[in-house]
């Protein structure tokens, strides 16, 4: 059942691919326009590729689950599926797998541009470890997206997701390196999940010491968003199906 739901959601998205194309294009274009023309050095350019890869995963998860789930809840098909005598987990697991699939697809253009046009370097084992770290680092955004999607109608979910996404991505150092931040913004950055996600993946790819506080905050955000996602799902279930 999980595979069936996964396949259905993949086909549904592929038939209208503009969302996936836009999610994948923006980070790669940002790398092409703001990193490629300049000589920052191998270490900084590798970190830039990592940051924009996290940006792509964050965008994919928040919009796929935040807006996508909210949109599905307003269609007749989703309520029908939820009334069938089947456990909820296969459907939710299929959705998570589809979101993870598209998130991994979204980082491919970033990696290709980074490999071809920048000095970014990574060994194959480090690259594989970095992809695993990306999946772990994306959990707060996946779970946060589910919390938004099950809490809000689609007309509210879209602006809320946008309001969360861009400030958190910027403050987390995904668009500019945190080394350029003034003191107050650095303090804000360390308590965002995006900064912890960046630190984790940079650690995996470059083997540089991460900021411990940022990783602890990332773990805290993961637990918090998991609790919010469970609460939002149960609240929605109770309101609509009792």
UniProtKB/TrEMBL annotation:
Task: Keywords in alphabetical order, please.
Answer: Antibiotic resistance, Membrane, Transmembrane, Transmembrane helix
> Which membrane topology term applies here?
Multi-pass membrane protein
Biological process (GO), any one: response to antibiotic
Q: Which GO terms describe its cellular component?
A: ATP-binding cassette (ABC) transporter complex
Q: Tell me which residues make up the ABC-2 type transporter transmembrane domain.
A: 10-201
Tell me where in or outside the cell this protein is found.
Answer: Membrane
User: Which top-level group of life is the source organism from?
Assistant: Bacteria
What is an example of a GO molecular function annotated in this UniProt entry?
ABC-type transporter activity
Instruction: Give TM segment ranges.
Output: 16-36, 48-71, 92-117, 129-149, 156-176, 213-233
Which named protein is this? ABC-2 type transport system permease protein
Q: Which organism is it from?
A: Pseudonocardia oroxyli
Q: What is the lineage of its organism?
A: Bacteria, Bacillati, Actinomycetota, Actinomycetes, Pseudonocardiales
């Amino acid at each position: 059942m999980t595979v069936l739901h996964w396949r259905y959601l993949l086909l549904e998205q592929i038939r209208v691919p503009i969302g996936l194309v836009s999610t994948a294009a923006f980070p790669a274009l940002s790398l092409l326009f703001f990193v490629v023309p300049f000589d920052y050095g191998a270490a900084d350019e590798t970190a830039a590729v990592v940051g924009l890869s996290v940006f792509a995963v964050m965008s994919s998860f928040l919009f796929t689950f935040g807006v996508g789930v909210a949109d599905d809840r307003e269609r007749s098909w989703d309520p029908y599926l939820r009334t069938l005598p089947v456990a909820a987990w296969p459907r939710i697991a299929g959705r998570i797998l589809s979101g993870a699939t598209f998130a991994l697809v979204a980082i491919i253009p970033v990696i290709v541009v980074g490999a071809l046009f920048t000095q970014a370097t990574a060994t194959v084992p480090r690259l594989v470890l970095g992809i695993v770290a990306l999946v772990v680092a994306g959990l707060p955004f996946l779970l946060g997206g589910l919390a938004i999607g099950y809490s809000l109608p689609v007309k509210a979910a879209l602006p809320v997701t946008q309001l969360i996404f861009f400030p958190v991505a910027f403050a987390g150092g995904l668009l500019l390196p945190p080394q350029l931040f003034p003191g107050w913004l650095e303090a804000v950055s360390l308590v965002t999940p995006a900064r912890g996600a960046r630190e984790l993946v940079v650690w995996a790819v470059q083997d540089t010491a991460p900021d411990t506080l940022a990783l602890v905050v990332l773990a805290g955000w993961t637990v918090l968003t998991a609790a919010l996602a469970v609460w939002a799902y149960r609240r929605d279930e109770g309101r609509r199906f009792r």
